[in-house]
Amino acid sequence: MIRKSRVYILVLAAVAAGIVLSAGFNLSPIARALRGDQEKPAVVPAAAGLRMVPVDIPQLFKEVSPAVVNISTTQVMKLNRPRMRNPFGQQDPFDDFFNNFFGRTPKEQKRKSLGSGFIVSPDGYILTNNHVVEKADEVTVTLLDKEEFKAKVVGTDPKIDIALIKIDAKKKLTYVALGESDKLDIGEWVVAIGNPFGLGHTVTAGIVSAKGRIIGSGPYDDFIQTDASINPGNSGGPLFNLKGEVVGINTAIVQGGQGIGFATPIQLAKSVLDQLRDKGKVTRGWLGVYIQRLTPEAAENLGIAGRHGALVSDVTSGAPAEKAGIRSGDVIVAFNGKEIRDEHDLPQAVASTKPGKTVDVRLLREGKAMTIAVTIAEMEGGPGKPAGGGQDLSKNFGLTVQDITPEIAQRIGTENTKGVVVTGVADGSPAEDAGFTEGDIIRQVNRLPVSGMAEFTKLAAKSKADKTTLFLVERGDARILLTVKIK
Q1: Are 105 and 98 in contact (CB under 8 A)?
Q2: Which runs of consecutive H residues, i.e. helices, occur in 181-250?
């Protein structure tokens, strides 16, 4: 009996152990996590255990803040108080009233504005935004120790909103090092110092929340987005990495947004700094092409695989691109050895090229790759709607067009009467979806020239359902390619 009891006890113990083990294996991930029995994650970050944490920001501020300056500007505005017209030709009776009781109306008024900047050399050169000092009659720089100096505007570059000014402090000044904004990582900590709301030196910290932002300020948009607080008055101030190097120039904010600020990458400023100091202006390279985004529809129509590159919608007559043989419909995928991922990469690559230099341009044409040598030149510094009428093509494209008569050409401001002008776009039509607007001038259909209505009708009739048709459209000073698919 004793032996049987022992056997029963052992069996029961084994069953109980099995139940416990089974329960352990069937625990949910949350239950196992609560027990500290976590599973190995699917992806183990390479930097696990080596997280970047903020450095001693108070010490960083102490070291770099002497090189950060406040900038105040004064602009003299001309004022003209309008005179009241007297139908009887007599003197305005209110003139004596205002002159006697309020003094004469001032003819000038001073407008003041505030911004920030940072010293980039011991002899007093300072970088800031162009919009901080633009049209200023007087620029005053205030250092951290409250010393004030009158500044001279040495050079400006409105295209990337950069200005170089200089003060004569008669002593060597603390200046900052310029870093490598191209090496910034999204999520990296940054520190902004400036003069928000005219309060004086203020420091804020945050991370790089995005790179390569396009905010519509110009052809060279490539902003660093950060959640380090940037406010009015911060314009022109530096954005530091944790090494104390300037990686950006605080430039713009989103009105009504919180935690969204934009800084110009310091690489753009470094590329023009010598020109601003030596010539007071920036000379840029010029290729002479109109470009746009390479859409999947355009890529299909052009017989191109992939979506990388800048689509050439048209070429300026007599420009380096035309002389080298670049055509409308080409897709530029590399310029001077640099990959062109999209339409935003090309303007910066061309602009940074010295005029007179011959570079290789790699492109795709009708699905075939080729390389063309181009000698870059120097860059030199909306139409009204026509009357209705014309041919109705709403059954396929949804466009109403007509010939460009001399009267219409004069109205829309063009001397070229070849092509057709869009006089109507049907609601919900393929043309509306493609982006056509009244006043557009159609110069080509599927890369074939359009001389007038007859040629347009002939080419348009060849368009087939479920196939894209490529239009070269002139809109004001720009030329763009629009793709329309008939449903």
Answers
A1: yes
A2: none
Q: Measure the CA–CA gap between 247 and 116, rounded to whole angstroms.
A: 15
Residue 342 a catalytic site member: no
Q: Which residue has the higher pLDDT, 93 or 424?
A: 424
Same domain, 273 and 198: yes
Does the annotation count 161 as an active-site position? yes
Name the more confident of 362 and 197: 362
Look at residue 423 in the predicted model and tell me its pLDDT. 79
Which residues 6+ apart lie within 8 Å of 356 measured at CB? 375, 376, 377, 378
Identify the active-site residue in 116, 235, 313, 328.
235
CATH number at residue 418: 2.30.42.10
Average pLDDT over residues 351-379: 92
Q: How far apart are CA 343 and CA 41, in angstroms?
A: 39
Q: Are residues 411 and 452 in the same domain?
A: yes
CA distances from 80 to 83, 95, 103, 111, 315 (A): 9, 13, 15, 15, 47
Q: Is 95 a catalytic residue?
A: no
Distance between CA atoms of residues 352 and 334, nearest Å: 14
Domain count, the chain: 3
Residue tagged active-site, from 116, 131, 328, 463? 131
Q: Is residue 85 part of a domain?
A: no
375-413, pLDDT tens digit by residue?
A: 999 887 533 333 333 444 445 788 888 888 766 776 677
Verdict on whether the full-model pTM lies above 0.70:
no
